[in-house]
Specification:
By secondary structure, the chain is mostly helical. The protein has two helices and no strands. The radius of gyration is 15 Å and the shape is elongated.
């Protein structure tokens, strides 16, 4: 059995998604402090993408790979 790297495993992907959510949160807070709507929007998009990573991977990408 070959050994996977941490970032290629399920746990690694979820860890990266969590870190992206934390970065997006800081970006949103910085945008609110500076009254920058663009920064808030970018943070929201990053957060939504990170939260949708796991369901998209399980229900779309893995099923496409299975075929």
């Amino acid at each position: 059995m070959e050994k996977k790297s941490f970032l290629k495993s399920k746990e690694g992907g979820l860890t990266v998604a969590f870190v992206v959510i934390l970065i997006a949160f800081v970006l949103i807070l910085a945008g609110l402090k500076m009254q920058g709507d663009g920064m808030c929007a970018a943070g929201f998009v990053l957060m939504a993408a990170a939260m949708l990573y796991s369901p998209l991977k399980v229900y779309v990408l893995d099923r496409i790979k299975k075929r």
